[in-house]
Amino acid sequence: LNASQGVSPVNCKIGAEAAIAFNRVVTADFSSASAECAETIRKSWKALSKILVNDEGKEWIRTHWNLCVPLKGTEDVANLKDWLTNVWTNLAMVNYPYPANFLAPLPAYPVKAVCEHLTNSTLDDHSLLDEIFKGLSVYANFTGQTQCLDVSQQADQSLGDMGWDFQACTEMVMPMCGDGINDMFEAQPWNLEKYTEKCLKKWKVNPRPLMAPLIYGGRNISSSSNIVFSNGLLDPWSTGGVTKSLSDSLIAIIIPEGAHHLDLRAADPNDPPSVIKAREIEKQFISKWISSTKRDRKEIPKSFIVG
């Protein structure tokens, strides 16, 4: 069996540095487009908290952000912030150099397109949130066909990822946290107890945070073979990837210009050089392993006659 694995959180585990680093990579993607962009997003969380503290503020956000359903209690406010977090994260993941429709219809380099609207972090709270809405509309309404903003739906519903959400609440627990200083997100420590409550409410299941390392071995994969682990550094999931080759048949590739599994997508004239080179390396190793397997099979006799 030969495999080329686009970056995935093989090494993510409770308390791992990857839990902190994930949000920092997302932030770096936005900061690369514009430092003011990341700072505007960082300040938006406090602006939301201040404005949404009363009914007047909730009505303001409903009209200015064209929400499908008005916000009511604190749970709705928390859901809105979760939805926003997913939007920024998804944009970093799919920051492809050409228009694509993986998680949502998006232009080329969507992070840059978003940041063109987030240019002044010194605005007052209401004006700053008006900018945020223009930016997030690149993700939520690039086609111009969306009638209203439905934050009750997952930000990547086009992928049909409810199955992934269930997995993340059972055996594929991925801790995420941020401090709001080294990243652009609202400060949020990892809290397994609260995460468990959320999973119980939504899926009626208890997370098993150590199940994935138990099943798949975590970092202990040296007995495996014939795998290329590709890591796009624009992809926040690279923080949990295998970034060093472990043997001559467990190969790690680092792709500085790679977004989420960009090397595994169809070739495009706008692919950056590091992605093109990564594909060549992947092909070389997989071709080598296939040829070796075919040769070994030819050398195995059909049967042994004894007696």
UniProtKB/TrEMBL annotation:
Keywords: Carboxypeptidase, Disulfide bond, Glycoprotein, Hydrolase, Lysosome, Protease, Signal, Zymogen. It is found in: Lysosome. GO terms for biological process: proteolysis. Its EC number is 3.4.16.2. One of its GO terms (molecular function) is dipeptidyl-peptidase activity. Signal peptide: none annotated. Belongs to the peptidase S28 family. Homodimer. This is Lysosomal Pro-X carboxypeptidase. It comes from Daphnia magna.
